[in-house]
Write a structure and sequence with these properties.
This protein is α/β, with parallel strands linked by helices. It has helices at 18-27, 67-78, 119-122, 135-148, 154-173, 191-205; strands at 6-12, 34-38, 83-86, 99-102, 107-111, 127-132, 182-185. Helix 4 (135-148) crosses helix 5.
């Protein structure tokens, strides 16, 4: 590539709709024009996860993720290197992790709940995007997702939301909302915000 990739950071609270938003963002570009690096593939092994006072593993803390390796790979990808790492399978023993390859592209999207929290990562972004939704909507989405996709019962979902998810949002995510260049509301639909961002990034991808 003739110039350094345009680096976009996307964050928001759990169940704010980041996954679907990013999926539709990526589908708006040819594969060689955009690359996604997700914080999810940097979770530490389950046995190394911090535990709360009741001994429940808390996957919603910065310590849950190898942020140093994540920051290093963001910098490497931004500098034009290809990154290879093992897929994170959410501790599902029935899934065989794949080896993932991330190649530099004109636009690189970096996503995750802590991508603004770590200054070493945050300061690299050319554009910071915050996906926003009301708390009751995020909780409703989380209940559906964790019940249907991950097999958690209602008590487990509510416990984790109250004691892990909500405190993490208040301490590590919400404070950086004011630093975002674009805030995209997603209580009902993110279509307009997505359209604006796609139009803007297409200009960067073709520059």
């Amino acid at each position: 590539m003739s110039q350094k990739p345009f680096l976009v950071g996307i964050t928001g609270g759990s169940a704010s709709g980041k996954t679907l938003f990013i999926k539709q963002l990526l589908e708006s570009f040819p594969e060689n024009k955009i690359c996604l690096l997700s914080q999810d593939n940097y979770y530490r092994p389950r046995q190394l996860q911090p535990k709360d006072a009741k001994g429940v593993a808390n996957f919603d803390l910065p310590e849950s993720i190898d942020l140093e390796a994540f920051a290093r790979d963001v910098a490497r990808l931004h500098a034009g290197e290809t990154i290879t790492l093992k897929e994170y399978t959410y501790n599902n023993p029935n899934v065989v992790p794949r080896m993932l390859e991330f190649k530099p592209a004109p636009v690189i999207v970096v996503e995750g709940i802590f991508v603004f929290y770590l200054e070493e990562i945050r300061k690299q972004f050319d554009l910071k995007v915050f996906i926003d939704a009301d708390e009751h909507i995020k909780l409703s989405r989380r209940i559906r997702r964790d019940g249907q996709e991950r097999g958690y019962d209602m008590d487990d979902v509510l416990y984790r939301y109250e004691h892990h998810v909500a405190p993490t949002f208040d301490k590590y995510i919400r404070p950086f909302k004011s630093e975002a260049d674009i805030i995209i509301p997603n209580n009902e639909s993110f279509d307009k915000g997505l359209s604006v961002l796609v139009h803007y990034l297409k200009g960067k991808a073709e520059a």
